[in-house]
């Protein structure tokens, strides 16, 4: 039994990209079948006026309709007449995808360095507040209009990256110089980030004209602009420019990890820290640098949450950072895979809303259905990550001098 398990883990570890894709698709099909059965059976315990009668039992929920709304409702029902690619449902899906790309990259960078950054949520919270405060402070001193957009948007994103990077460097330094477990420190720093930002908001940054815990709105020209003529409406809180930046950053991180000395040292430290140290890599410096970069990416997620979606910082920050953990695992910690995983999460989030508005299926069951899909698709990659710690991956340790892609 143990030998069979070891062989299975070794097969997963050494699986090619095509094989991993086939496994993920098979897992998705299995999740759809299991979820469909669950939805259908749950309908027998619900009350409805019309349904499918079998042996005197009325089944109220139609799994086909549920999956139709989940996957096509998130795109705005493209098979129906009058469909426009600039619809609100697709904008919601792509907006969530954009934010989760940043969060997923944040977690993936730390994982590739052998670190478990559970604190992306806190780094996102801090980065978002720093972004809002920086833009609000700088706006009166800068011109408005197009010039203001060109100056304030990059400034806000940079401020978010610096805020998140600083907050990510804290657990990195604790890990490097005090041997503190980064899982525990990052989890605790999530709570600290929530409490500290709420206190700062209530004392200095609260919008005096609102009873809701939020900052003042940044100037409209300081928000992420939409593309005139070919972009989504500004009322949809989504910009193709933001998605384009997320994809470009995703490619840049993949290149950084695969084609630079820094990326080679980061990956080697994560795979074989002893060999990396023998090759001249400063493990402590790399730990702090990796967590700083990871936190900066989380801060960028917070910056775009402020500048694209809300135009202000709100105390009630969604759990994008925690979703980023699942996105990264689903992508196998591969930066280029983060985009596809984030899109799946965006579809599930937007499609769940479509199910709630178009069917009588309760939200709790929709949440279970989405969870099953994520669990089934992510588990093969999760076991592959576990297997990498017990199976010889034949990594070739050498002094850092660049290096190619390892997956």
UniProtKB/TrEMBL annotation:
Gene Ontology MF term list: transmembrane transporter activity
CC per GO annotation: plasma membrane
Pfam families (UniProt xref): BPD_transp_2
TM annotation in the entry: 21-46, 98-118, 124-142, 149-170, 182-201, 238-258, 288-308, 320-345, 365-383
Coiled-coil ranges (or none): none
Membrane topology note: Multi-pass membrane protein
Localization: Cell membrane
Keywords of the record: Cell membrane, Membrane, Transmembrane, Transmembrane helix
PANTHER family: ABC TRANSPORTER, PERMEASE PROTEIN, GUANOSINE ABC TRANSPORTER PERMEASE PROTEIN NUPP
The protein, known as: ABC transporter integral membrane protein
Native organism taxonomy: Archaea, Methanobacteriati, Methanobacteriota, Stenosarchaea group, Halobacteria
